Amino acid sequence: MILFFGPPGSGKSVQGKKLVEVNGWLWLSTGLLFRQSDNPEVLSRLASGELIDDELTNQVLDEALHDMNGTSNRVILDGYPRNVAQAEWLVKRLPEHGREIATIIVFEVPNDELIKRLSGRGRAEDVPAVIERRLNIYHDKTQPLLDYFESLGISVQRIDGLGNVDQVHGRVEVALRSCIPG
User: What kind of architecture, by CATH, is found in domain 2-179?
Assistant: First the structure.
């Protein structure tokens, strides 16, 4: 399993989908899992705008991982974990699903570029002050996660997220080849 980290607008989802397209891997996004869920509690929380707590998030992810049991496909996990408690849960549960974390890819993009990218989407929440707040939250919460994974000896690779999709994809492929055989 490969974990993708990066701030909003860094291109994680685009690159995850590209790995699926090029290599036939599986892409798991917790946001997408929530939106596709038939769990009444998840749907209720999404409809009301409530955050989905760790326990329910873990349950939804556990079900998705269970559905992948028996497949040999590599998995890209996007949007999870978001805190150290989730990271600890993931490390504990993956062996039960026959998986382990091979590496972590961190997409690095300067804040001014992220603000430009996100401001261009046209969403109501994509105004500079809100974007900057989201970026600060991301940076504050991500470093403890990366420190935790590195303390376990898991490779953390930082990728320059600037450039077009194919340029960034080339960097991702190089990073993956350096740590994942075949």
Answer: 3-Layer(aba) Sandwich (3.40)
